[in-house]
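[job 0412] stage=complex_fold ligand=methionine sulfoxide status=START
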Amino acid sequence: MATASNAKDLRTELAELAAKASSAHELMSAIVRLLQERMLKYNWVGFYMLENSPGQAPVLVLGPFEGAMTPHTRIPLHQGICGAAASTGQTVVVDDVSKDDRYLACSLETKSEIVVPIFVREKVVGELDIDSHFPAAFRQEDRELVEYCAGLVGQRLARTSAGK
Ligand code: SME
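[job 0412] stage=complex_fold status=DONE, emitting structure tokens
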């Protein structure tokens, strides 16, 4: 779990990463590396971005990640904890994935999960997904940290889509 001082230091580093990243993709890659390296219970850290193709149902597509390769590279919005977070626009925290029928297994070791949506101009454009090998790994301070990361990516994407 994030400790207050740890989370504060990380926020400073994350803000620096956001300031110097030359693209949203570069920022996302740096965030997954930093979180997985520094937060010992964050065992799989990855982004899913919403793909909207004309005439097709929207789907979440795996973006930059750290951890083992997942079989879930494309997740429809009606599936998984990932689909739930993206379709409701709400952060989802699951303390025990074995008790959640929505859960799509990625690793047998995963015990808990958090998924935080990313917004650009109030629309969900993707999400940050973190799995832990520990039950109930994501407390309030973790939620705030992960939401902070998702916010940085949303801001970066908003700048990109505004042509900056
Ligand atoms: N567990 C997720 C699927 C993605 S993997 O965790 C990387 C879900 O239930 O949507």
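Residues 44, 46, 70, 72, 75, 80-82, 103-104, 106, 113, 129, 131 surround methionine sulfoxide (CB under 6 Å).
[job 0412] exit 0
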